[in-house]
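QA checklist item 7 of 12: single-chain prediction sanity check.
[x] sequence parsed
[x] length recorded as 220
[x] structure emitted
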Amino acid sequence: MSIRVVVADDQAIARQGLRMILESEPDIEVVGEAVDGLDALGQVERRQPDVVLIDIRMPRMDGLEATRRLRDVAGVEVIVITTFDLDEYVFEALRSGAAGFLVKDSAPELIIDAVRAVARGDALIAPEVTRRLLDQFVSAVPARSGDPALASLSPRERDVLLGIAAGRTNAEIAAHLQLEESTVKSHVGRMLSKLELSSRVQAVIYAYETGLIAPGRPTR
């Protein structure tokens, strides 16, 4: 089955470019285009996509608010796409439930890989970019001095959280921990449930905020 995508951007040329890139692949179908966040919500309701690729800065309703509202829509994942100019909204978008993000000058192959990865609930997109952004923004976020919920994690679930925070895919975590990929996927689901997180991106932010890892400090 094709991955159904809605593209939301207030610039027609950006929407058309993304459509051309995505529809060059036989397993991806762009089922709708939206000119702003409000339009994106309507497109999701009508088209029932698997993934929404959304810009941040748009009229009427921006990508941030749309991402918050889409967070609770079952079966829909959001990828934020923005410029890499230290956009102060990126970190908040991730906290709001975006499954990943891209920069607008990303290679077509990365955009395609991002949609596929998010559709299958897998890793952060462009982990090196993710880490750079988090390193810059997390220092401005008030840190929690630990969290009692961490104690509810099993040792393996904690290891998986550290792997996610390092930007590893399920397959890479499995290889690192010498586990089956299906086992890692189960650990990820239980870890997110115990910590009341909605996405892998939120797990990365949680790891920073609770001091489990720190900007610039390598994970195991």
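[x] summary fact logged: The first strand starts at residue 3 and ends at 8.
[ ] second reviewer sign-off
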